[in-house]
User: What shape does this take?
Amino acid sequence: MTGAILRFRHVMHPPRTLRWRLFLILLTGLVLAHGLSFGALFLERTSAAKAMMLGTLEQDVATSVALLDRLPPEERGRWLAVLERRTYRYELGPGLPGVPDLGSRGTEIARAINGGAGSGFPVVVETIPGGRPHLQAHVTLRDGSPVTIDVTPALMPLAAWLPLLLAGQLLLLVLCTWLAVRQAIRPLARFAKAAETLDPGGTSARLAEDGPSEVAHAATAFNAMRDRIAHYLEERVRILAAISHDLQTPITRMALRVEMAEDSPEKERLLGDLSQIERLVREGVAYARSAHGDVEPPARIDVGSFVESLAFDYQDMGKPVTVRGLSGAVLTTRPHALRRILTNLIDNALKFAGEVEITVTRDGAGRIGIAVQDTGPGIPEHQLTAVLQPFYRLEQSRNRDSGGTGLGLAIAHQLTLAIGGSLTLRNRPVGGLCAEVTLG
Assistant: This one.
């Protein structure tokens, strides 16, 4: 029972896309308007046909009753076929037994027949029991002979092509509604794509400022917003670069003064603090510049050879970094940005684990994955996304020797987005962390 209710709710749930909602709203309105128009026309046709039938019945009964009254009784039977019509016919005799019809239809037909026959021929209208609507009007001629008018009310039959015409009109409504919704939704799709691929510092094409005035105005505002964001990013980089440059001089002077001081534990601590300040300044500027990872021109590289060369550099320094996986995979990307990404991931893995393994793979869609795996403690599941934010450190103490600056993964994530890729962190089932960069 619960499953049936859930399925019913799923079926009755309104569509989630704006395209289908607009389509259903417009189509429902048009179909209702079409139905109301058809209903009004059908009602008018019914009223006109009813008035025509009653008028014809009134005129025809007057002529037919007068004709039958003047004919000799033996000749009246031969004229019945001539006087017969589609909705009524004449019979000689009292007809079938029935009950008086007191409804509006019987009253109108009785009034029409009485009006046609005249006061000299009294008329009684009765309903004949049965499956189909059936009435009989009983008229007495001047010689006392009974005449029965058998009436079967019916409208003119619909033309055979009318249902096809209605189906064609409905199909045309559906097509026009779909085209109208498609034209209305297309600018939204363009805006969504432009927002998803927004790269203020990049070389991606600007949003076309054409179309209807509202769409062109929105596109102009979007391009202006993009320009402002690009300006703010460039200003941020300039400010951080200027701060870094201005801080280098006092940091260097302080380091020289400490170096000239006598050896002591305090001297080593001061030198360590100055080194941490300098590193923090450098990485802050690196993070600000990581948003502009596209300043480097793209180049074609062999991913396997590129990763092996990077691993060899670490091996030359005595670091346990190994590579396995795909070779010969060619990719067009920005090599220096990719090297910085992998270097940050490898350094982060070496900090918390004894060894690092790099795996290069390619899926069925041609996307290349570079996974940096370690055997360290991993990251709590609820923090896998948070560690990609700047200045977020798993080590919550103020000791940056153990917790780092909190910018390594953030720089890697920002640069990956800048070169059109994605960075995913996940814990390995066997223990440790896997940081995978997907490109292509």
In short: Residues 396-403 have pLDDT under 50 and may be disordered. The first strand starts at residue 88 and ends at 92. The radius of gyration is 46 Å.
